[in-house]
Batch of 3 targets.
Target 1
Amino acid sequence: MIPGTETLNGLPRQRLGFFPTPLVRLQNLEKVLGAPKLLMKRDDQTGLGLGGNKTRKLEFLIGEAIALGADAVITAGAAQSNHCRQTAAAAAQCGLECHLALGGTPPAELSGNLLLNTLFGAEIHWSGEMRKGENIPTIVAGLQQQGKKPYIIPYGGSNETGASGFVAAMIELQQQLAAAGEQVDHIVFASSSGGTHSGMMVGRDILGAGFQLIGVNIDKDEVYGMALDKYIIHLANTTANHLKLNSTFSQDDVQLSSDYLGDGYGVIGDLEREAISLTAGNEGILLDPVYTGRAMGGLIDMIRKGRFTQEETILFWHTGGSPALFAYGDDLR
Ligand SMILES: *Cc1c(COP(=O)(O)O)cnc(C)c1O
């Protein structure tokens, strides 16, 4: 029995996605890049409102909201947040009111994730400079005054409840690899609010697995006043505690590359453009401009710099986000 699974299986959970997501090999990209074996975990295909990694967190977060008798959920993000869009879809499916605190001001045109949020019936609270949920308490107070029972989903869904979804994801991956007769040496993915990364760390620990987890940092701004690697360690520890595990995590357990931050969150450069077009043009797979485009750009750079041997196997975890492509058309031409 894998440690922690009894607790994990006992947590409230709302089924929202189609799992396991596909595991595919990218043979064309391997050839083009002269890369070692390259696998991709297709979490862009989780199925909830055009999919993405937040579906895994939301199964536990929405599960908890329902268990607590909430009638509304609130979360926050950038105007093109994939997390907010998947939350809006989940809330629609479960009959919950959805409130989104989005950074910025109302744009002239609805596109990408923002368009989808409105189709899912979410109420948007334009929040200016605040794109990480700084104003959630104020909005929650207003909802409570109206007699509502709001459940707070933190920025990115990244608390121990949400991160538990990525502990479960590691178990899913291990079963898939075993069935396919594959093993991996490195998992590369976009890391931003910390939930994916810390859940993967706890999952690797309970499985006793030896692969490296290489997060590519997407956003140079801090989370809750902490550098991202510090927040990931904190969240791995609280997630382990949530699952009644004794494991503790420290700086040595985190590998986070901040080499690909470019001009900041959501600013598209040559790195992202090349990665998006190579992956689309050779594999017919869509990345996204903000997260997976940057993370794949980082992986391509690491391959070119000889970071991996030809005998190793690399898995790129596709965390979703392609609806945002439609909001970045001008930057991708
Ligand atoms: C949110 C998101 C990430 C980052 O996941 P975190 O758990 O916030 O670190 C990566 N890729 C996409 C497409 C996302 O929407």
Note: The radius of gyration is 19 Å.
Target 2
Amino acid sequence: MDKLSRFLDERATNGLLRRLTPQEERHTPAHAVREGCAYVDFCSNDYLGLSAHPALVQAAIDALRRYGVGAGASRLMSGDLRIHHELEEATAAFKGTPRALVFNSGYQANLGLIAALADRHDVIFADQLCHASQLDGALLSRAKLIRYRHNDPGHLAELLAKHRAGFDRALILTETVFSMDGDLAPLAELVAVKEQYDGLLVVDEAHATGVFGPRGRGCVAAAGLTDRVEVIMGTFSKGLGGFGAYVAANATIIDYLINAARSFIYSTALPPAVIAANLAAIRLCQDGLDLGPALLATADRFRAALRAQGWATGGASQIIPLHIGDPHAAVALADRLREHHLLTLPIRPPTVPQGTARLRLSLSAAHTEAHLRQVLEALGHG
Ligand SMILES: *Cc1c(COP(=O)(O)O)cnc(C)c1O
């Protein structure tokens, strides 16, 4: 117990203690109510505002009425419903791959898929900024884990040249849109390095799905590289407004995961209402909703306005980091913005490296120009 208290005290002293703060009401990122106060939410990953879209809500209601609440068992037991397969077929068509498999969350997808694809005879090369779920999957696999410098295919090639020969398989892990910096992976170069060294490229499109690429199909589709990336993982929980995740790949990989991915095998299937909402979101995208291009154009203009006001920012997506450095200063700035009814949770170590605390602003199609002006006015000159 002393050890736990010491951990908490140390976190508090360093400005790193996290707390839960519930919202009493929430429709889209444009409207959240917390402690009786209305806010515009810039922390949400509901990039297209789809979580409140009538088509998703209605699909969930219909599925609830038809199937009830819980799936009752794992997919390999009796929890496997026709609607899970419909979602997988629609997702494969959306991503342009032969097959797709639904996982219960992005975290569980990365954990299960990476641990299933690699073992102690293999080596995993992960971008230094890869998501915690990819790293946890790599640790669980017992493969040798080597980190390459963020978005640096040259460094990856050096490391492959040095270490590849001693191992059976080589997995290369990256996000396509990085969750904390909002920058994009150099996919064509990563594919070239992967092919030179006979590796398997496993990408995470959590923040790209719904936003990037033709009709929101993601960055791999945008780059025309679908046939050259072995495993494309992504989530329904962010841009698509629902919950859960998918892995899009060839039939062999998907059939293997059904038999070997422990987070898939040993967990109850997602509820039918969630699956139905995800399916409605994919159909909206396929039917040409296409909110991504306007959102990304807005993000570019917003970044330029921030720079004009003297703030250090970056990225090339709807995720906009404001680089602060000191975690206390990042917290103080978030507090100041909250007084202006703007939610922008500070991102601190260990989520990001020491000395790189930041405010992370997620823009959503649900935000208006007036909301963005509010942020610029509240920030003032940096
Ligand atoms: C959010 C996120 C996940 C986890 O997805 P959940 O569905 O929230 O569990 C995985 N990878 C990346 C890059 C993410 O940002």
Note: The mean pLDDT is 96.
Target 3
Amino acid sequence: MVDSKLKKAIGKDSKYYMNTFGKRTPVCFTEGKGMFLFGTDGKKYLDLLGGIAVNILGHKNKELTEALCSQAKKYIHCSNLYYIKEQADLAEKLVNICPNAGKAFFTNSGAEANETAIKLARIHFYKQGSPRPKIISANNSFHGRTLAAVTATGQPKYHLPFEPLPKEFVHVPYNDIQALKGEADKNTCAVMLEIIQGEGGIVSATKEYLEAAANICRQTGALLIIDEIQTGMGRTGKFFSFEHFKLKPDITTLAKGLGGGVPIGCVLASNEVSQSFSPGDHGTTFGGNPLACSAGLAVLEKIKNSDLVNKASAMGDYFRENLENIMQTTKKITQIRGRGLMIGIKLSEPNAVKVKDELFRKGYLVNSIGDDILRVLPPLIIKKVHIEVFCKDLEKILGEKK
Ligand SMILES: *Cc1c(COP(=O)(O)O)cnc(C)c1O
């Protein structure tokens, strides 16, 4: 069947849209419902990627849609020159959920949340009269695409074309305590880490590493910034993935799932650190506007009422069990990574793109990272039946002779 709507979209995209995403998966969606997206090709897709950890309530969630429509009918935006009830309400809720947080600030994206965290860490020491510029992050990390966030991102391929980059950013091997110890000093304002590296291939930090990092920060006086942009919002079976450990980050960043699809990011910081921002030091036009914050409030309400954090944990376990069975029967999976509903499937052959494409043809949306990792980040509303049908087809695909 020729999908003329898709064909037209591809034509316009290649003519008019900057080519940063390369050859995209050939589908255009018209509608979503729950775990599914419907394409202009007439096909139904089981969404196991959830817009890359964004659509945590799935598609067309009733409460979220109603909150958005109701807010849009009142007013969408004013300005941060005025008090915004929805913003204050969402800040209160997130500060109360986040251990160690005293205040919040809203942004429009993850990169901007990290950008804000970096500025906050630097200004914190500047205001104390002893500037400490150095930011330490990990190799293979991902913190976003704005200039400072991309500099913190430990992947040189994202750096080179954009030099000169902001100064005093250093990268150390992930999970290497000695390397971090060797780099952290009195010139360091912050150590910035993901609990599980998402774009880096679903690689988890060890408990020892995270606790050592917290200690190193305490000893040197550096702030600990935890990037929960992909891992947060309940995905790993705790609201924040750092809650699996004895960690008290000075600054925590959120984005992806927070608005359930509406762009919003958030920086949470201890009271002491938050106070380093004074009027005029930072700002945003759109960040924390009534529409985005209404979405955040609806998402938090739904997570609580439907117990989605515990469900993410249980469904994550069930997903793993099913994948382990495939691992045993086909030997085509060598490792299952991640935690809760943040899952990396390491394949025995470098054919992740091919497997992803085959899954797509069968009606499943997942993502591949590098040559041999499949990434699964489903909405937290996923049910056993979705896991079962996916695993059955994945087993079939992996079992086929190539
Ligand atoms: C996606 C992501 C970001 C960047 O978020 P954007 O909204 O794309 O700017 C930063 N950190 C982590 C861990 C992410 O997964």
Note: The mean pLDDT is 97.
